[in-house]
From TrEMBL:
Residues 774-805 have a biased composition (Low complexity). Residues 5-101 form the PP4R3 EVH1-like domain. GO terms for biological process: DNA damage response. This is Protein phosphatase 4 regulatory subunit 3B. Pfam families: EVH1_PP4R3 (PF22972), PP4R3 (PF04802). Residues 806-818 have a biased composition (Polar residues). Belongs to the SMEK family. It comes from the Eukaryota. The lineage of its organism: Eukaryota, Metazoa, Chordata, Craniata, Vertebrata. Residues 143-678 form the Serine/threonine-protein phosphatase 4 regulatory subunit 3-like central domain. Residues 711-723, 827-838 have a biased composition (Acidic residues). GO terms for molecular function: protein phosphatase activator activity. GO terms for cellular component: nucleoplasm; protein phosphatase 4 complex. Residues 711-849 are annotated as: Disordered.
Length: 849
C-alpha cells in the first residue's frame, strides 16, 4: 500500500471523559516493522514529530462517524479519534482499516458484519453495554440532563444513548413531562428539559429526528427549546409558528403528504436557523444529520411538485394571465423563487430534468412579463429566478432569445428587458444592476457557448447580441459623453431610443435619470464634454464599461467593428474628466485592454484619432499626486514600451514627448524616446543599404494599406451602424494621380500647416491648455492623421538635421483630384526630399504648462 497523507486532528479521551486535542498533522497508513503490521501514523504539521503510531488490529472495533471521524479504543479507558479535514481523506483511511480487517468499507462499525450485537458486546469488555436510562419522572430530570450532556463528548457513548432512547420510546415520555412542567410552571424542570432536548438533537441521529419532528411531537420539542436557562424570559417560538407564520397556497395543494412535508420542513428549518444557538467549533458536526434531514425533505418536495404537472400548469397559467391581480402575481413569483431555491438540493441529473420541465412550461416568457412590472419585489424575485436559469443553462436562455428575435421587436426581447432593468435600477448602490450585469456577462461569455458540426452558438448569438442588444447597453454611455453644443439634441435622441425599448413605466425614471446629468455638469470648465458627476450615474457607467471591457477581451472582431463604427473609445475617454476616480479608471482600463491586444487596427484607430490626448491630460492634471490613477496611466505607457509597439511609440514621442519629458520619477517616457530613436536609426540603416533607384516612390507600395479581405469585412457592416471611424485606406494610386510638381505638393503642405496653427490649444482660466477632440468620423480619418487638429502640445523631438517632423511622420495625407484622401508613404530617408525640405518643425506649448 502506498502512503496517503491527509490532514487530521488527533483526540484522546481523558479521565473526565472529555476529548483532548493532541495536535494537527497528516495521517498515513503504512507497514511498521517494529509493530509487525499495518499501522496508522500521524506526523505533526508543524515539526514532523510523531503524534500517533497505532497498529490496525484485526479485532479492534473501529467506528466511522459523521463522514469525517474515525473512533476506536486501544486499551481500557483509552479512546482515540481522528477528525479529518476532508471526507475524502476519512474514506481513504477507512478503506485501509477495512482492508486489513477484511470488512466491507460501507459499514460504519467494522465488527458488526459477522457478529451480532450481543456477541460484539461480550467480546469487548472494555466497552460498557447499552446505557441504562433513569426512569422518566419529574424528580429524575436533572439526572437525565446530566447523562445526556456527559455522553456528547464520546462518539461511542452517543451511539449507545441514541439506541437506548429509540428502543424505549423515551422521547414521547419526556415530552409528556414537558406538558406537566409547563402546567405546573415548574421552571427548574423546564430548564432541565431544554438541556435534554438540545442534547438529544446533538446526538445527530436521523431515527430520533423522525420521532421528534413528527406532527405529534414537533410543537412540544419547540416548546422545550423556548426555556433556555440563559434567558430571563422564555421565547415565544410556538406562538410565532402557529399565529404569525402563515402558510400560503398560491394554488391549493391537494396532496396531504406534500402539505405535511412542507410544514415539517419549514418548522425544522426554523429550529435550526432561529432556535438553536450557533454551534461552536467542536459542535459544528453535531447537527450534520439535521442539515441532511432538511436537505432530503426539500428534494422530496421538489420531486412531488415536479411530478404534479397539473399543479405547475395552473401556476404558469395564472402567472401569465393579464387578469391576475398584482398581489396574486407577487405570491406566484415568490413561490417560483423558493421552488428554484429548493431545486439546488437536487442531484445534477434531477436538476436538469427540473429546469427542462420549467422551460417546457414556459418559464422564460413568463419572466419576460413579470420583469417588466412596476412592483419592485416582483422584479427582484424574477431576477433571482432568472439567475437560477442562467446559472443552470446559459445556452437554454440564449436559444430562447434568438428564437424570440425572429418573432418580436427589439424592444421586448428578454435580454433587452434585463438591460433596461440594469439601467433603471433605483437602488443607490445598484445592487440589482450588479447582479444583472453578472448574468449578462455569463450570457455573452464565449467560454460557455457550444460549437457543433452543424451549428456554432458563439457566432450566431454574438451576431444577434451586437445587432439587437448592444445599442441598448451603450445608450447611457453615448448619451452622457456627447458634446455641449449637441447636448440638447443628444438628450432628445436618447429619449427617443428609450421610448423604443423601455416600457412606459420606466420612461419617466430613465428620463429623470438622464436629465439630472445636465445640472451636474453646468459650469464645468474642464472640457467641452458632458462628464457625469452624479454618483449613481457614474456607478452605472462603470458597470457598462466593465461589460464592454469584457467584450474587448473575448469578442474579437464583433466588438472591434462596433468600437470603430461608433467611435466608442473616444466617447469612453471623455469619462477621464469625471470627478469620480473609479470611473476614470474604468475608462482607462477599457483603453488598456484594447492596447493589450496589440492589434494594428486598434493602434491605427488610436493614433489617427489622437486618443492618447485625454489620457495624458489626466496624467498632467493629476500633478504630483501618487495615486492609483497615476500608476495606471504609467503602467499603460510602460506596457507600450516593454512590448515595443512601434506605431504607438512613434505617435506618443512625436506628439507628446515635450509635455512628458519632465516626468523623471519613472524612466518610462525616456525609455519610449530611446525606443523611438533606436527604431529610427534602424530604418535609416536599412534604407541606406538599398540602391537609390529602389527608394523611388514609383516602386513603393503603401505598407500600411489594409489587406483586401480585412477591408471587405470592415465595409460589410450594416449601414445603420454609421460610417466607419477609420475608413479603408485606398490603394496607392498611379503616378498620374500625384501632384504633378513639387511646388503643388508644397502648397498643399503649407495650407495644412496654416490650418493647424489656427487650431492650437487655448489656455483655460486655470492656466492649462484646453483640449477639444472631434466626435465626427472624419476627425479620426486620415485627414488629421499626421497633425490632427485635436492634438494639443504636439512637439516633434529634436533632431540634428532640422527635419525631424518629416522623419517622425510616416503617413501624409495628400489631396487628390476630387477631394478624396490618398494614403501615401513618406519614407524618412528619402534623401532627395530631405534636401529640398528646409522648414523646421514648429514648437507647440507643453501640456498643462
Amino acid at each position: 500500500m502506498s502512503d496517503t497523507r491527509r490532514r487530521v486532528k488527533v483526540y484522546t479521551l481523558n479521565e473526565d471523559r472529555q476529548w483532548d486535542d493532541r495536535g494537527t498533522g497528516h495521517v498515513s497508513s503504512t507497514y511498521v516493522e517494529r509493530l509487525k503490521g499495518m499501522s496508522l501514523l500521524v506526523r505533526a504539521e508543524a515539526d514532523g514529530s510523531l503524534l500517533l503510531e497505532s497498529k490496525i488490529n484485526p479485532n479492534t472495533a473501529y467506528q466511522k462517524q459523521q463522514d469525517t471521524l474515525i473512533v476506536w479504543s486501544e486499551a481500557e479507558n483509552y479512546d482515540l479519534a481522528l477528525s479529518f479535514q476532508e471526507k475524502a481523506g476519512c474514506d481513504e483511511i477507512w478503506e485501509k482499516i477495512c482492508q486489513v480487517q477484511g470488512k466491507d468499507p460501507s459499514v460504519e462499525v467494522t465488527q458488526d458484519l459477522i457478529e451480532s450485537e450481543e456477541e460484539h458486546i461480550e467480546e469487548m469488555p472494555e466497552t460498557s453495554p447499552l446505557i441504562d436510562l433513569p426512569s422518566c419522572e419529574l424528580n429524575k430530570l436533572e439526572e437525565i440532563a446530566d447523562l445526556v450532556t456527559s455522553v456528547l463528548s464520546s462518539p461511542i457513548r452517543r451511539e449507545k444513548l441514541a439506541l437506548a432512547l429509540e428502543n424505549e420510546g423515551y422521547i414521547k415520555k419526556l415530552l409528556q413531562l414537558f406538558q406537566v412542567c409547563e402546567n405546573l410552571e415548574n421552571t427548574e424542570g423546564l430548564h432541565h428539559l431544554y438541556e435534554i432536548i438540545r442534547g438529544i438533537l446533538f446526538l445527530n441521529k436521523a431515527t430520533l429526528f423522525e420521532v421528534m419532528f413528527s406532527d405529534e411531537c414537533i410543537m412540544d420539542v419547540v416548546g422545550c427549546l423556548e426555556y433556555d436557562p440563559s434567558l430571563a424570559q422564555p421565547k415565544r417560538h410556538r406562538e410565532f409558528l402557529t399565529k404569525t407564520a402563515k402558510f400560503k397556497e398560491v394554488i391549493p395543494i391537494t396532496d396531504s403528504e406534500l402539505r405535511q412535508k412542507i410544514h415539517q420542513t419549514y418548522r425544522v428549518q426554523y429550529i435550526q436557523d432561529i432556535i438553536l444557538p450557533t454551534p461552536s467549533v467542536f459542535e459544528e458536526n453535531f447537527l450534520s444529520t439535521l442539515t441532511s434531514f432538511i436537505f432530503f425533505n426539500k428534494v422530496e418536495i421538489v420531486s412531488m411538485l415536479q411530478e404534479d404537472e397539473k399543479f405547475l400548469s395552473e401556476v404558469f397559467a395564472q402567472l401569465t394571465d393579464e387578469a391576475t391581480d398584482d398581489d396574486k402575481r407577487c405570491e406566484l413569483v415568490n413561490f417560483f423563487k423558493e421552488f428554484c431555491a429548493f431545486s439546488q438540493t437536487l442531484q445534477p441529473q434531477n436538476r436538469d430534468a427540473f429546469f427542462k420541465t420549467l422551460a417546457k412550461l414556459g418559464i422564460l416568457p413568463a419572466l419576460e412579463i413579470v420583469m417588466g412590472m412596476d412592483d419592485l419585489q416582483v422584479r427582484s424575485a424574477a431576477t433571482d429566478i432568472f439567475s437560477y436559469l442562467v446559472e443552470f443553462s446559459p445556452s437554454m436562455v440564449r436559444e430562447f432569445v434568438m428564437q424570440e428575435a425572429q418573432q418580436s421587436d427589439d424592444d421586448i426581447l428578454l435580454i433587452n428587458v434585463v438591460i433596461e432593468q440594469m439601467i433603471c435600477d433605483t437602488d443607490p448602490e445598484l445592487g440589482g444592476a450588479v447582479q444583472l450585469m453578472g448574468l449578462l456577462r455569463t450570457l455573452i461569455d464565449p467560454e460557455n457557448m457550444l460549437a457543433t458540426a452543424n451549428k456554432t452558438e458563439k457566432s450566431e448569438f454574438l451576431n444577434f447580441f451586437y445587432n439587437h442588444c448592444m445599442h441598448v447597453l451603450t445608450a447611457p454611455l453615448l448619451a452622457n459623453t456627447s458634446e455641449d453644443k449637441c447636448e440638447k439634441e443628444s438628450f432628445e435622441l436618447i429619449k427617443s431610443l428609450i421610448k423604443s425599448f423601455i416600457y412606459p413605466y420606466l420612461l419617466n425614471i430613465y428620463s429623470a435619470f438622464i436629465f439630472c446629468l445636465s445640472d451636474a455638469v453646468v459650469g464645468s470648465t474642464k472640457s467641452n464634454t458632458i462628464c457625469p458627476d452624479n454618483y449613481q450615474t457614474a456607478q452605472l457607467l462603470a458597470l457598462i464599461l466593465e461589460l464592454l471591457t469584457f467584450c474587448v477581451e473575448h469578442h474579437t472582431y464583433h466588438i472591434k467593428n462596433y468600437i470603430m463604427n461608433k467611435d466608442l473609445l473616444r466617447r469612453v475617454l471623455v469619462l477621464m474628466n469625471s470627478k469620480h476616480t473609479f470611473l476614470a479608471l474604468c475608462a482607462l482600463r477599457f483603453m488598456r485592454r484594447i492596447i493589450g491586444l496589440k492589434d494594428e487596427f486598434y493602434n491605427r484607430y488610436i493614433t489617427k484619432g489622437n486618443l492618447f490626448e485625454p489620457v495624458i491630460n489626466a496624467l498632467l492634471d493629476n500633478g504630483t499626486r501618487y495615486n492609483l490613477l497615476n500608476s495606471a496611466v504609467i503602467e499603460l505607457f510602460e506596457f507600450i514600451r516593454v512590448e515595443d509597439i512601434k506605431s504607438l511609440i512613434a505617435h506618443i514621442v512625436e506628439n507628446f514627448y515635450n509635455a512628458l519629458e519632465s516626468i523623471e520619477y519613472v524612466q518610462t517616457f525616456k525609455g519610449l524616446k530611446t525606443k523611438y530613436e533606436q527604431e529610427k536609426d534602424r530604418q535609416n540603416q536599412k534604407l541606406n543599404s538599398v540602391p537609390s533607384i529602389l527608394r523611388s516612390n514609383r516602386f513603393r507600395r503603401d505598407a500600411r494599406a489594409l489587406e483586401e479581405d480585412e477591408e471587405m469585412w470592415f465595409n460589410e457592416d450594416e449601414e445603420e451602424e454609421g460610417e466607419a471611424v477609420v475608413p479603408p485606406v485606398e490603394k496607392s494610386k498611379p503616378e498620374d494621380d500625384f501632384p504633378d510638381s513639387y511646388e503643388k505638393f508644397m502648397e498643399t503642405k503649407k495650407a495644412k500647416e496654416s490650418e493647424d496653427k489656427e487650431n492650437l490649444p487655448k489656455r483655460t482660466s486655470a492656466g492649462g491648455f484646453k483640449f477639444t477632440f472631434s466626435h465626427s468620423a472624419s476627425a479620426a480619418n486620415g485627414a488629421n492623421s499626421a497633425n490632427s487638429k485635436s492634438v494639443a502640445a504636439q512637439t516633434s523631438p529634436a533632431s540634428s538635421n532640422g527635419s525631424s517632423s518629416k522623419n517622425a511622420t510616416l503617413t501624409t495625407a495628400v489631396t487628390a483630384t476630387k477631394g478624396s484622401l490618398v494614403g501615401l508613404v513618406d519614407y524618412p530617408d528619402d534623401e532627395d526630399d530631405d534636401e529640398e525640405e528646409e522648414t523646421s518643425p514648429r514648437k507647440r506649448p507643453r501640456l498643462g504648462s
